[in-house]
Amino acid sequence: MSALPSLPRLPRPPLPAVLLPGGLRRRIGERLENFRVPDFTVPARLAKVAAHLPQQPPTLALTLALNLALDRILPRDTLAPLTGRHLQMRVLDAGLTLDFTLGDGGFRRAAPAAGARPDLVISATTRDFIALALREEDPDTLFFSRRLRMEGDTELGLLVKNTLDAVDWDALKAKLGLGGR
């Protein structure tokens, strides 16, 4: 068998910021700096379809994001009480129910046992979860306005809330070169 010829290396494309002229880049940056998640709800028909689809792909996306944050911005030792506990995130308007747990190797999908209830259930709409992730909304504000619900072990719920509150998001933005707000 003959060896396959090596392909020439293609040049790396420039970063998007390099492609934009200075004034346009500045205006886009200003708009992103002041961006707010608009009020929206996932259409009911789409949610009905999503509720019947396998929940594994969105759960894997969630656990991947959590694992990327683990030990970087989410301290593993603080989250130790979550180890082995069944956590569930319900995205109310999208018809998604994401079951996961924290193990020695990080966050992973959890297969719910028949008849077993999760230790902690966190429920909100897609818009409110995005606003939480972007730090536009405070968990306490959403909780007291009944837009964020926690059911089950209240100690675990407080641990999750306090861990998110303790993250120094401005330091993380600076570390990533995104600047503070």
Automatic annotation (TrEMBL):
Coiled-coil stretches: none
Pathway where it operates: Cofactor biosynthesis; ubiquinone biosynthesis
Pfam families found in the cross-reference section: SCP2
GO biological process, alphabetically ordered: ubiquinone biosynthetic process
InterPro entries to which the protein is assigned, alphabetical: SCP2_sterol-bd_dom (IPR003033), SCP2_sterol-bd_dom_sf (IPR036527), UbiT (IPR016830)
Residues in SCP2 domain copies: 76-165
Keywords from the UniProt entry: Ubiquinone biosynthesis
Functional summary from the UniProt entry: Required for O(2)-independent ubiquinone (coenzyme Q) biosynthesis. Likely functions as an accessory factor.
Similarity comment: family membership: Belongs to the UbiT family.
Name by which UniProt lists this protein: Ubiquinone biosynthesis accessory factor UbiT
